[in-house]
Amino acid sequence: MNLQKLSIGEFSRLCGVTVKTLRHYEKIGLLKAEQTDRYTGYRYYSVGQLQKMLAIRQLKELGFSLEDIASLFRGSSHFPDAEMLALKIRETQDQMLVLNNRQMRLQALLDSRKNQETMQKISIQSLPAMTVASYKGILPSYSELGKLCCEVIGPEMQRLGCECTEPGLCFTRELNPEYTPTNIAIEYCEAVRSPKTDSELITFYDLAPVETAVCFKHYGPYEKLYESYCELFEYVQQAGYEVLEAPRAVYIDGIWNEDDPNKWLTIIQLPVKKA
């Protein structure tokens, strides 16, 4: 590198601006190469022009346009006077007011959109009384739920002669006192027409009706249910409800009728009353 004569590439690297930008600055007369080789057309800049390029960058960062900067350079000073700085401050304050107003309007739109999406996912319903076949056990993870239903619970209910209601309804309730991603203690319940004789795996009992339940639609794999639980309980708290019992995860669409886990539909039912 010849410090007395910098190629456009060297000058670009030292200043932190692109060659395209330097060519644009030369085109508008803001910063011309100090020397152009008449045979090759190569442009060369001097070390002294580094300071001018630095001044251009600083003024741009302060909000001055290229036209403003070019006007300054045509004058006796390369730095704005007090009047220009005061004007730029007023312009900046006006821009801040516009941006703050825009931010408030955007936030209002976002809040409105979130409320609409929440109301599409959440509904308030009553739950009917029912007789259920109940299985209590430990799941290694929620991904094993489909296998448990098909290979253990289903065959045992069939052996006992259970008749499921139409439409069918099955749900789980977690029995763990705290969150655990593995070894999940659950109760699996399926609505049946009438109770049968209890077995080692299945017991039968009646569930009382629930006057008010907040119901939340969850789309996706069961491992993501906790995200919907968090959103549901936040809504319940804000709406002023008191939780009466553990939530039920009601399985509508799952591995038995949909291959894509992202399309599995689970409705979380949370019995509540107004606090």
What is the topological layout?
Blueprint: E1 6-7, H1 8-15, H2 19-27, E2 35-36, E3 43-45, H3 48-61, H4 66-74, H5 82-121, E4 122-127, E5 130-139, H6 145-160, E6 170-174, E7 184-192, E8 203-207, E9 210-219, H7 225-238, E10 241-243, E11 248-253, E12 265-274
Antiparallel strand pairs: 1-3, 2-3, 4-9, 5-7, 5-8, 6-7, 6-11, 9-12, 10-12, 11-12
Task: Give descriptors for this structure.
single chain; 275 residues; alpha+beta; Multidrug-efflux Transporter Regulator, Chain: A, Domain 2; Multidrug-efflux Transporter 1 Regulator Bmrr, Chain A; 2 domains; nine-stranded antiparallel sheet; three-stranded antiparallel sheet; 7 helices; 12 strands; 40% helix
Task: List how many beta strands DSSP finds.
Answer: 12
The number of domains: 2
Q: How far is the first residue's CA from the last residue's CA?
A: 78 Å
Please summarize the sheet with the most strands. Answer: 9 strands, antiparallel
Which CATH-level-2 architecture of the largest domain? Alpha-Beta Barrel
- Number of DSSP helices? 7
Structural class: alpha+beta
The rough form would be described as elongated
Radius of gyration equals: 35 Å
The H-level CATH homologous superfamily of the largest domain, spelled out, is Regulatory factor, effector binding domain
> Would you list the SSEs in sequence order as H and E?
EHHEEHHHEEHEEEEHEEE
Task: Note the beta-strand portion.
Answer: 25-35%
Uncertain residue ranges: none
Mean pLDDT: 87
In the CATH scheme, the class of the largest domain would be Alpha Beta
Helix content: 40-55%
Task: Write down the CATH topology of the largest domain.
Answer: Multidrug-efflux Transporter 1 Regulator Bmrr, Chain A
